[in-house]
Structures are given as structure tokens and as C-alpha cells.
Amino acid sequence: MSRTLLLLVCAVVLAGCEMHASGVSVQTLRDDDAPISESWNTRMVISEDGRPRLVMEAQYMARHETPDSTWMVLTGADESRDRVHVVIFDAKGDTSAVVSTQRIVYHERERRFVALGDVDVRSGTERRVRSEHLSWLEATARVSTPGFATITTPTETLSGYGLDADENLQDFSMARVSGTVLIEDE
């Protein structure tokens, strides 16, 4: 009896087993949002005609790639506390602006940088922009904010929406502006 029972159990187990194609491949194991590479304590330099155009430092960098896009995400090790630092240089090699933010997303093909979270931009001309979201398009040397921003100069503090400015923060425009302007008596 025990031999018959053993054969019966084996027959039931074997009948329930069949080979299935798993459908699992390296591609399906890879999460669509997962980076293709990661780096820690990153220093990224972009040069133009042998001169630095931008130097970016972050504690963490993740590079992502899809068939039509490549981008990098740079953050601190603790995004709520650590900062990403960027120095932008003008055509002469002088510092044009210094950016400090919680996160930067760099879209390679567009050469567009998006700073997110407590963005603080200081230009060499004593001008400063604060916002939660700021984009810089390298090709046009323009910065913009889709939402609220505050720009401070030696003589004015202006707040508004939709900032569009040159990277030196000399020429700028905003909508729905409020603020203070220092007017000197002659």
C-alpha cells in the first residue's frame, strides 16, 4: 500500500508540473524608472571651446535613458537637507551665476537644466533669484520659472510669476509683480 500511495503522490505532483515560459528577461527585470548608472560625490564639468561652461557638484547622480531621451538627476544624499551646487560661467570664463538647490534634472539632448526645491541663484552682479522651480536653457543662456519667483537686486525686491531672464539676471520680466524699489533722491 505504501508503495502505491507513493506512486500516486508522485503522479499527482508530476501531473501538476509543466514547463512554462517565464517571460522574464533582463529587460523585464529592469524597472522602467531605474537609472542605467549611478554615481556618488559627483562633479560634472561641461566645457565649451576648452573653457568651463558649467561645474555641477552633487552627492548623488542617477543617469536615465529611454530610446528618445537621456537625463540625469542630481541630488544630495539626503534630499531634504543636502544641496546640489552649480557654477555657470560666461563666454569670458567669468562666473555668471551660482545655483544651490535640492535637485537638478539635466536633459542632455535639449541641454536644459531644471532646478527643483528651494532654488537659490546668485549672479556676480549682486542679483538673486529664489523659487521652487527654475529652468536654464544652455543654448539660449536664459532662465525661467513657471511659477512664483522673487528677484532681489541692490535697489529692488520684486516677486511675481513666470520669470524670464538672461543668466546674469540683468534683463528680466515677470507677470503679476509686486515689490519694493529704492529710489534715490538727486
Care to describe what's here?
The protein is mainly β and 186 residues long. The protein has a domain at 33-145: Lipopolysaccharide (LPS) transport protein A like domain (lipopolysaccharide transport protein A fold, Sandwich), CATH 2.60.450. It contains two helices and twelve strands; from the N terminus they run ααββββββββββββ. A hairpin with a 4-residue loop joins strand 8 and strand 9 (142-144). The radius of gyration is 27 Å and the shape is globular. It starts with a helix and ends in a 5-residue tail after the last strand. The relative contact order is 0.10. Residues 4-20 have low confidence and may be disordered.
Which secondary structure elements does this structure contain, and how are they paired or packed?
Elements: H1 2-16, H2 26-29, E1 37-48, E2 51-66, E3 69-75, E4 84-89, E5 95-101, E6 103-107, E7 112-123, E8 127-137, E9 142-144, E10 148-152, E11 156-166, E12 172-181
Which features would summarize this protein structure in a list?
single chain, 186 residues, mainly beta, lipopolysaccharide transport protein A fold, 2 helices, 12 strands, globular
